[in-house]
Amino acid sequence: MKLTEKELNEFPIGTKIYTEHGEKYMKLDNSTSEWREMKGHYWMSSRGLLNSSIKQVEIPNYIEYIQPKPILDDKEKGYLSGVIRPFRRYIYGILKRECESMSIGRAILDESGWHEVESNGCEYITLFNSRGYNIDLPFFEKGTMYKGMELDREYSLEELEL
User: Which residues contact 151 (CB under 8 A, 6 or more apart)?
Assistant: First the structure.
């Protein structure tokens, strides 16, 4: 089988080439045109492989892994860790809820006095306790905190990395 240097360089990382002489090479890096012998420490350039008689090319099937984005940012983790620290062994779940028929009243002060500002609702965090009662944390404006958490989904401490 004859391949051009361009074809050799376009193979993805992990591609294996088997020669007629029983040698096996693997591509380890896209930035260079070097291939490594699989049973030794010998390196060969793609030009060197052009001169070898290539018997087989094995292209790997990749499963793409996307690292999940953390649910909580560092500030949120720090706050929740501090809140649950005294009774951590009793907390088994954390939930973000939406306030029912309530909104956080906000007002601003200017030269003419206080003016109420519209709010798009509020949310709060509930800690589930194995001792039979739940702990509701203070309300916060909707969409401002704990953005990575879904509403009404219970999370374990491990899921939130607490």
Answer: 96, 97, 98, 123
